[in-house]
Design a protein that fits this description.
- It is built from ten helices and no strands.
- It is globular.
- Helix 4 runs antiparallel to helix 5, helix 6 crosses helix 8 and helix 6 packs across helix 10.
- It has one domain.
- The chain is 80% helix and 0% strand.
- InterPro entries: DUF624 (IPR006938).
Length: 235
């Protein structure tokens, strides 16, 4: 019986598909940041021109109504990245997703902005009349929690609109509320990442918007997509 000695195989290094996948991510992130800036041009321009955006928060909150449809666009680009890999065309995917989901995403964004404006005004009134309003110490944390849930629910619902374009708005909102509460740790992570994006955009509008949003939004999209698919598998 003769024994055949097999030579150990050498690692040939990363293949073409690996480099293509890396390029797809980089291209999608760079294009996504540019498209987000263009889709929210009034907000970006005002952030760059106004020295203290916090002092004019109602104005900037109203301008942020354009964010929701652009989130639908970037989420659609991320979905195409997952499906197509290195062959992804992020600009075309963004535009398709923006157009397809505009009505639902814009409605979600307008509702969220209206709710946050209402909560922000209430919070400002409570803080300025903390000594005279009974229970102000309890109402302030409650308002903050409701605002956080509003943001988390809206972003999750926008992801649901992209993932389930045929589903009704009522079904998406119910599923999003369920996910936001059941997987609270993902909602908390989402709020932290969104806070980083907002802080970067406010402190350094040009660099912050050019570099920060897409990679962090990709993490948010991945978590939301995982949560929706987990619910669908268990249904």
């Amino acid at each position: 019986m003769s024994s055949v000695s097999a030579k150990p195989r050498r690692w040939a290094g990363p293949g073409f598909e690996t480099f293509g996948s890396i390029f797809g991510f980089i291209y999608t992130f760079l294009a996504g940041n540019v498209l987000l800036a263009v889709a929210n041009a009034p907000l970006v321009l005002c952030l760059a021109l106004v020295a203290d955006p916090a002092a004019a928060w109602p104005f900037f909150l109203a301008l942020s109504v354009t964010i929701a449809p652009s989130l639908a666009g970037i989420f659609a680009a991320f979905r195409a990245l997952n499906d197509d890999g290195g062959a992804v065309k992020p600009v075309a995917a963004f535009l398709r997703g923006y157009k397809r989901s505009f009505a639902k995403a814009a409605l979600l964004g307008a509702g969220a902005v209206a709710m946050l404006l209402f909560l922000g005004v209430d919070l400002a009134v409570l803080q300025s009349n903390a000594q005279t309003v009974p229970g102000a110490a309890l109402l302030v944390p409650l308002i903050v929690v409701v605002a956080a849930v509003t943001v988390s629910l809206t972003v999750t619902a926008i992801a649901g609109v992209v993932l389930l374009p045929e589903a009704s708005m009522k079904s998406i909102l119910k599923a999003s509320l369920f996910l936001a509460v059941q997987r609270w740790y993902l909602s908390l992570a989402m709020l932290v990442l969104l806070g980083i994006i907002v802080s970067a955009a406010v402190m350094q509008p040009v660099l912050g918007i050019a570099l920060a949003p897409a990679p962090l939004l990709f993490v948010i999209w991945s978590n939301a997509s995982y949560a929706f698919h987990a619910v669908l598998r268990s249904a």
